[in-house]
Write a structure and sequence with these properties.
By secondary structure, the protein is mostly helical. The chain has eleven helices and three strands. The chain has helices at residues 2-25, 30-42, 47-66, 93-107, 112-127, 131-135, 165-182, 202-214, 224-237, 242-249, 254-275; strands at 142-143, 148-152, 158-162. It has a three-stranded antiparallel β-sheet. A hairpin with a 5-residue loop joins β2 (148-152) and β3 (158-162).
């Protein structure tokens, strides 16, 4: 008898608690949720934080509806603030030229590491490939007659990427005068080698780019991905269409490539403001 009373009491108490929860959640609508986010925005919360919290609110209201605590789901119409995407930092054309000249000057002494470093930065800037793709290249992936490298990108997708005459010369010098001196014993298949004769480590390639770009006065500090951004931006500024640049960079969607159009527009605006008499 006592057990039955206890169970009935628990059931009754649970029903009261659910009724109270429903009453409290009854005032939760889309306006309340938006006001909640707006208050956080006013207090300094960033876009990423707001997006995360709005997602949590949607999960909560969906759970409340499934549990019978709410009759309608206001979270379904709660939009997440878009995370702000910073425009990539890129080199101006003259800065990129200075970096390549400085790298070429270092390679003139035919030091094998300097020859390799020059070929690395020339190929990264000429092709816009990722540092992981560069370090994964084998000697057989280079088609010298067509000036094309065969790249294995994200998701195992293969693509062919062209490069220019300066990169071709840097590669020829590296393969003829630098690589044989670093290859130990049986030459590995890797196109670029480290000081110990093994495949070049991406960390070493990043250091190489940091050092080369750092020698250019006024240039922003950047690594290989900065050269990739720079290559894409300069291609678009030179008149390349988005689809072609998407193919060259190996982007899965055009939306990723479109980020670079904002870079070029910002540059055009800056040039206009600096040079137009009625800017």
């Amino acid at each position: 008898m006592r057990d039955g009373v206890g169970q009935g009491g628990n059931t009754a108490r649970g029903g009261v608690e659910r009724a109270g929860a429903r009453e409290q959640l009854g005032v939760l609508d889309l306006t309340v949720l938006r006001s909640w986010l707006a208050a956080q925005r006013s207090s300094g919360a960033g876009r990423t934080t707001l997006a995360r919290r709005s997602a949590s609110a949607r999960v909560f209201t969906a759970w409340a509806v499934r549990g019978g605590l709410m009759t309608a789901d206001p979270g379904e119409r709660l939009a997440s603030p878009r995370a702000h995407r910073e425009l990539p930092t890129v080199l101006r054309a003259e800065q990129a030229e200075q970096a390549m000249r400085a790298s070429a000057a270092g390679a003139e002494q035919d030091d094998p590491l300097a020859l390799r470093d020059h070929a690395v930065v020339e190929l990264l800037y000429a092709s816009g490939i990722r540092v992981s793709e560069l370090c994964g290249l084998d000697v057989g992936d280079v088609d010298h007659s067509r000036r094309v490298v065969r790249v294995l990108g994200k998701g195992g997708k293969e693509r062919s990427v062209p490069y220019g005459v300066p990169a071709q010369k840097a590669l020829d010098d590296w393969l003829a005068k630098g690589r044989p001196l670093l290859a130990k014993g049986e030459p590995p298949a890797a196109l670029f080698l480290g000081a110990r004769g093994r495949r070049l480590d991406p960390r070493t390639a990043r250091r190489v780019v940091h050092d080369v770009v750092g020698a250019v006065p006024g240039a922003a500090d950047m690594g290989p991905h900065g050269l990739r951004h720079t290559a894409a931006t300069h291609l678009l500024e030179g008149g390349a269409d988005l689809r072609s640049v998407q193919e060259l960079l190996g982007h899965a969607t055009l939306a990723t490539t479109q980020l670079y159009t904002h870079v070029t527009v910002e540059r055009l605006k800056a040039i206009h403001d600096r040079t137009h008499p009625r800017s």
